[in-house]
Design a protein that fits this description.
single chain, 828 residues, alpha+beta, ten-stranded antiparallel sheet, seven-stranded mixed sheet, 24 helices, globular
Length: 828
């Protein structure tokens, strides 16, 4: 390994390092220069733990008591729709080479770089950096365990210096190090062809493994698919001749090209190679500025680019001079268009299309870096790799969660293929990085293995086929990379996945050349899973039973942005493997009239509304009726607590900031409530859930507790019964006094003709405060439940069937309270 590929630990406790001056990127001290270590071994870029001697310390006790604080600086007063901050105030990191991200104000003079500073708490500045972008990967050094503070500054267009407050974080003992982008690009550029073939493996050795082990059926299907593709004409040629849309044909020809080329590589078939070339050149011939170009269809453009990159990697030696020139020109134009589009991520860090494109472009450049026809690809890979690491976890932070629709978490699994390609091409193993390692735990918590349940929260919640669609391929690939026994169990939970006769990514076959190959499967045991960065909690009766019961809860910093809904502090209930309390509404297409006014609206969630359905992220500052929720992260929630005690599991959230209406200037927000706190608790032993609502308003409100189901509700003496097949639950509001009404259908019908959902609403008399306790009994069993909620303090005490009591205190999010006090709205 070259000196650039491995860095020794750099001690930043300067007194221990023997230095007294700040380390500066523009003029590095000898301590930085001497941190480079030489090693001639060709080892993979694994995430090593940061080593250290006596000078290193564990995170300080002060960090353990650190309380996040909202600052009156440009970082915290910008709209949260445009605000992403990593590390968050008081966050503890598992990496010694942190990723720093901050928002981009609109008044910044972008011709001048950002200034970044790092120090020990209250001490002298240890190092500074300059950055053209509002993010920084500190991969050239490793921070010692302990507490730090960071700050950024910029010049506005009037030349004034604007400086952020110091934000605190700590580095944990045993923290890992991320490799530098330049090192990854150099390693990829040096990889010989076939680029995906692991070092030390041969095609013949892989072929023996593919033909005799667990992948033998998959490899046989790969060959059968190659035969089918060989008999079919190019889908693109057919679509063009018939005047049909090209996007579906792109997918078909891209897969056919890869299947035929991979089969040709392993079995040495010239006929397959020629047919693969035909598909490749059909993709090359698509005008980059046409129907499949970035401007008109960014998703198809990135798909074409990746196919061209794979085709060049697999078939480059078979291209004649004209074909090579055409491919290089087409790929270059498409690639440059994607790269140029990434500039908007500086000001819009939650642009879902751009975020989804980053791993695709990175994967493509891993194929092209270091090749003679793409001399710029190595530098572009370094640039894109840094962006990929800097944006990874945008929808969930470091805990592996995905807060922008569970269905879209599955749709965006392209990052797994990027990581597998990086492992094979550049020797980069990111499996120990927390957002990668924890992603499997999130999927297991919110998508039960081998079931057909609805997807919790966000767009396309009605999709019940996610596990079936992705577990045999992408999930299996993820398990091979991360090598966690629980993830191995997860994809194998559907026994037919091992024997499934379906085409999967060839990355599986190449990974057979890596050792260790797979972990032995071991079923998970945890029944509580919390993802605070994404704002999600899952509570289960069993970690593995497909017929388990589950209570899901969401209160997220992402608010109602993008594929997320106005559903802060909402819950979902699955009972005995059946969807009982659901998120109502359908997803005919993004921003359809039904999607905007129904699917995203608070009153169609199992959540609090008032005065006839008024809820979160309202489009008017003083609404008299519910409107279509604004797409915004300003109308957000926050988890304020979660855990377990005895037979109880619980979660609490603050949605006060979500219940706001947008002012007419489109920037500021007006509070509608002064408090909107909820706690949920689940007792799997007694099959009982309790919902606590503590809310307040400056004016009297008619408070409403909404619930939704796939089948009509039945009301008997004020008790509401929800049913689905053989599963049922009875809901009873213990206080205050309520009336209950049921209905079916939607005010705007779904454009795809999907079935009606059914609704129930408990309503109170008009009051300025609400302290409500709702008990949900699975199976409508007569389990005695004692529950109280103090309307003055938010303190609740719960017990079921004489068991041990659970005490919860509903408390506001300190950052939310500070934001409400500082200003009712935040302009970008």
């Amino acid at each position: 390994m070259s000196p650039a590929l491995r860095f020794a630990s750099l001690c930043l406790v300067l007194s221990a390092c023997g230095g007294g001056a700040p380390a500066n990127a523009e003029d590095p001290p000898s301590a930085v220069a001497s941190a480079l270590a030489s090693d001639d071994e060709a080892a993979p870029l694994r995430l090593a733990a940061a080593s250290g001697g006596a000078a290193r310390t564990t995170a300080s006790a002060a960090t353990d008591t650190c309380q996040p604080t909202a600052q009156a600086d440009f970082v915290d007063t910008l709209s949260w729709t445009y605000r992403r901050v990593e590390p968050a105030d008081c966050q503890t990191l598992g990496v010694a080479t942190p990723v720093f991200v901050w928002p981009q104000p609109v008044d910044r003079n972008t011709a001048l770089p950002w200034s970044f500073s790092l120090r020990r708490p209250g001490g002298a500045v240890l190092l500074t950096r300059s950055s053209a972008r509002p993010r920084l990967l500190l991969t050239d050094i490793a921070l010692a365990p302990g507490s730090y503070e960071w700050q950024v500054a910029y010049r506005d267009r009037a030349g004034r210096a604007q400086t952020s407050a110091w934000r605190r974080f700590s580095v944990a003992s045993g923290a890992i190090r991320l490799p530098a982008a330049s090192a990854v690009a150099a390693q990829a550029a040096a990889k010989a062809a076939p680029r995906l073939l692991p070092a030390g493996a041969t095609l013949s050795s892989l072929l023996r493994q593919m033909s005799s082990g667990e992948y033998n059926i998959a490899w046989a299907e790969y060959g059968a698919q190659a035969d089918r593709d060989a008999r079919r004409a190019s889908a693109l040629r057919s679509a063009q001749a018939a005047g049909r849309p090209l996007a579906p044909a792109v997918s078909e020809d891209a897969q056919a090209m890869e299947v035929l080329a991979t089969q040709a590589l392993f079995v040495g078939s010239p006929a397959y190679r020629e047919l693969a070339l035909e598909r490749l050149m059909a993709l090359v011939a698509l005008p980059p500025n046409g129907e499949t170009g970035e401007a008109r269809d960014d998703q198809t453009n990135r798909q074409v680019l990746l196919a061209l990159a794979k085709g060049y990697s697999l078939l480059g030696g078979s291209l004649d001079a004209t074909q090579r020139r055409q491919l290089v020109a087409a790929a270059g134009e498409r690639l440059n268009a994607i790269l140029a589009s990434f500039a908007t991520l500086d000001g819009m860090p939650y642009d879902s299309h751009k975020l989804a494109a980053v791993p695709v472009l990175t994967e493509a450049l891993l194929h092209l870096a270091g090749t003679p026809d793409f001399p710029q690809a190595q530098a572009q890979l370094a640039q894109t790799w840094e962006l990929a690491i800097g944006t990874f976890g945008s929808w969930g932070g470091r805990d592996g969660g995905f807060g922008n629709s569970n269905a879209y978490a599955w749709y965006n699994l392209q990052w797994i293929r990027m990581l597998a390609t990086a492992r094979l091409v550049a020797g980069v193993d990111l499996s120990a990085w927390e957002p990668v390692r924890r992603a499997g735990a999130y999927l297991m918590a919110f998508t039960p293995a081998d079931t057909r349940l609805r997807s919790p929260f966000g767009d396309d919640a009605e999709n019940s086929t996610l596990y079936d669609a992705y577990s045999f391929d992408d999930l299996r690939l993820y398990a091979a990379l991360v090598r966690d026994p629980a993830h191995e169990w997860y994809w194998r939970a559907k026994a037919s996945n091992v024997r499934l006769s379906s085409v999967m990514s060839p990355l599986h076959f190449y990974l057979l050349g890596l050792v260790p190959l797979r972990a032995g499967p071991r079923a998970p045991t945890a029944t509580l899973a919390a993802f605070p960065d994404a704002g999600l909690v899952a509570m289960h009766s069993s970690a593995t039973d497909p017929a388990r019961s589950s209570l899901y809860f969401r209160s997220s910093r992402l608010g109602a942005l993008n594929h997320s809904h106005a559903d802060q502090n909402s819950l979902l209930l699955v009972s005995g493997g059946r969807d009982l309390l659901i998120s109502a509404g359908h997803y005919p297409y993004f921003a359809s009239p039904h999607h905007l006014a129904v699917t995203r609206a608070t009153r169609f969630k199992n959540a609090l509304s008032f005065d006839g359905g008024i809820g979160q992220s309202e489009p008017l500052p003083a609404p008299t009726q519910p409107g279509a929720p604004v797409f915004s992260a300003d109308s957000r929630g926050a988890l304020t607590g979660w855990g377990s005690s005895g037979d109880w599991q619980y979660a609490m959230g603050d949605a006060t900031l979500a219940y706001r209406g947008r002012e007419s200037d489109g920037e500021r927000w007006r509070p509608l409530l002064t408090r909107a706190l909820r706690g949920v608790a689940y007792n799997a032993k007694e099959r009982v859930a309790v919902v606590l609502d503590w809310a307040a308003s400056p004016v009297p409100r008619r408070w409403e507790l909404n619930y939704h189901a796939l089948e009509p509700f039945v009301v008997n003496a004020g008790v509401l019964k929800a049913s689905n097949g053989g599963a049922s639950a009875c809901l009873e509001v213990l206080g205050p006094a309520t009336t209950v009404a049921t209905s079916s259908g939607f005010p705007i019908a779904p454009e795809n003709g999907a079935a009606d959902h059914h609704h129930a609403r408990f309503s109170t008399a008009s009051a300025t405060q609400l302290a409500a306790v709702t008990v949900i009994r699975e199976g409508c069993r007569p389990v005695p439940v004692q529950a109280s909620l103090d309307p003055a303090t938010g303190r609740a005490v719960l017990s079921a069937n004489g068991g041990a009591a659970l005490t919860l205190v509903l408390t506001p999010d300190p950052l939310g309270a500070a934001a409400t006090a500082a200003r009712s709205g935040t302009a970008r």
